[in-house]
Design a protein that fits this description.
heterodimer; A: alpha+beta; B: FAD/NAD(P)-binding domain; 10 helices; 27 strands
Chain lengths: ~90, ~425
């Protein structure tokens, strides 16, 4: 069972409905935080947690997921289809 | 036949170079871009190479690729792999490769990264001594652990920490050799170093401090190392993490690019030569927060510098109407292993003029050092306190005056977010 955490996104006009963090993959490189400090934070285990699922626009959110060197951030659209990584 | 022509030429295909190409493409949809890489590979995750789940095969090897060949095709970025630039004519804007190909450019980025420092101890040429920088290095270590029984790691930094943990997890009898008095001296204090040592030792790793290797013994393959005090440690593989050196940069130096430890740039990542930028581990850039030139080697920094350099290369083309941006970023680096997390934020060099405020304690297994110059934070080191990383980074970034809050800063339960500007 993967160690994952899901965060529902309710931002108006957004195509992204869910942010998922795979904690087994996350290594705390924190490049996502450099892209969007309003969305993410680290916990004391050096894993990323989402503090503002609605804070960033879709482009920034996608860029933050793409910046992850271990592909630990997964994005899903409102219908549940995976948007990133493809 | 004249030289191949590209508007934007990027020397170095790591995260800084490829992020620069990606950024340029978002600003300039039509111009030509080429990336020259010394390795034959498209962008991969260099940081993944030393991470447990990948190293031990729990993550499929192909997950290492961050940009496949299709990304370069789709974004019309020409990829020239397995080649080095050997000569640069900055006046006529032509780079010459080691296969004699000539490439002309209008805007040039140097983002070559750095190389691992090689061990020069007698016996260093025996088989079984490894370094970790490239994908080939990573593959070689992953292959070696399948048959090796006893490993030695050399060096007390990130590579030593992560590799010792991984080698032990892979089932090898692992001994770590440190020249220093404690782990990560002098960037960390002795108490932080001891916490890391305790965590590593709990996993069964042996640590020998003040250890200087005088010779590597063995026939063709490594069989043991001998220390200055005569101690002999048997091993069939050695992993060295003893720092980095610049790659060959004669091409840039001869072209008039100013180089100290790295390639000197201003805050816009511009070198002293017109239309040449530098980014990533090789850039010795003007840090606006510290007001001095510094060189940093980590993923986040390289990626951010790639973005800014790409933006500024595009901004130098008047027809695009883009404003250039200064690189102003509080850098950080984190790692975890052996049940402990470690983070360095901003400038954590313990100079004598810096006040060091302690939060938490080794006894609480939660310990942080906040470095203050004058009224402001400049950096921090954290053991098992990475949840405060973003707050500390924002306090540094915003030059928050913390002079009236020394007691709050030393209270580990005080929420640092309360000091952030509203």
């Amino acid at each position: 069972m993967a160690n994952i955490k899901e965060y529902v996104r309710n931002k108006e006009g957004s195509n992204i409905g869910k942010i998922v963090i795979d904690r087994d993959l996350c290594i705390g490189a924190a490049s996502c935080i450099a892209v969007s400090g309003e969305t993410y934070e680290l916990d004391n285990e050096n894993k990323v947690v989402v503090i503002g699922a609605d804070a960033a626009d879709d482009a920034t959110l996608l860029m933050s997921a793409e910046s992850c060197p271990t592909k630990a951030i997964l994005l899903f659209d409102k219908a549940g289809n995976k948007v990133f990584p493809k | 036949m004249g030289p191949e022509k590209y508007k934007y030429l990027i020397i170095g295909g790591g995260v800084a170079g490829v992020t620069a190409a990606e950024t340029i493409r978002t600003k300039d949809e039509t111009s030509s871009i080429a990336v020259i890489n010394d390795e034959p590979y498209a962008l991969y995750s260099r940081v993944m190479l030393s991470k447990a789940n990948f190293f031990l095969g729990k993550i499929p090897f192909d997950e290492v690729w961050l940009k496949g060949e299709e990304w370069y095709k789709k974004n019309r970025v020409a990829f020239i792999g397995g080649r080095l630039v050997v000569f640069l004519d900055a006046k006529n804007k032509i780079a010459v490769l080691d296969d004699k190909r000539q490439i002309s450019y209008e805007k040039l980025l140097i983002s070559t990264g750095v190389r691992t420092r090689e061990w020069d101890v007698p016996g260093h040429d025996k088989k079984g001594i490894y370094y970790l920088r490239t994908l080939e290095d990573g593959k070689a270590i992953m292959a070696a652990i399948k048959s090796a029984k006893k490993a030695v790691t050399i060096g007390g930094g990130f590579i030593g920490f992560e590799m010792a943990d991984l080698l032990k997890l892979a089932g090898l009898d692992t001994t770590m050799l440190l020249r220093e008095n404690y782990f990560w001296e002098p960037t960390l204090d002795a108490a932080s170093g001891k916490m890391i040592e305790n965590a590593l030792e709990k996993t069964g790793i042996k640590i020998i401090k003040n250890a200087e290797v005088t010779e590597v013994l063995g026939d063709k393959n490594v069989e043991s190392v001998v220390l200055k005090d005569g101690t002999k440690i048997e091993c069939d593989m050695i992993v060295c993490g003893i720092g980095v050196i610049p790659p060959p940069l004669e091409f840039a130096r001869e072209a008039g690019v100013e180089i100290k430890c790295g390639i000197l740039t201003n805050e816009y990542l511009e070198t002293n030569v017109k239309d040449i930028w530098a980014a990533g581990d090789i850039a010795e850039y003007k840090d606006l927060l510290l007001e001095e030139n510094i060189q940093l080697g980590n993923w986040v920094n390289a990626r951010e510098q790639g973005r800014i350099s790409g933006l500024n290369m595009a901004a130098s083309c008047d027809e695009l109407g883009i404003k250039k941006e200064a690189f102003k970023f509080v850098s950080f680096y984190t790692t975890q292993g052996a049940g402990i997390s470690v983070a360095f934020i901003g400038d954590s060099r313990p100079f004598p003029d810096r006040q060091i405020i302690l939060r938490g304690s080794p006894d609480l297994n939660s310990y942080e050092r906040i470095l203050v110059v004058g009224k402001e934070l400049v950096g921090a080191t954290m053991i098992n306190r990475t949840s405060e990383l973003t707050s500390v980074a924002k306090l540094i970034q915003n030059n928050v005056d913390v002079s009236a809050y020394t007691s709050e800063l030393s209270n580990p339960d005080f929420d640092l977010k309360q000091l952030l500007p509203k």
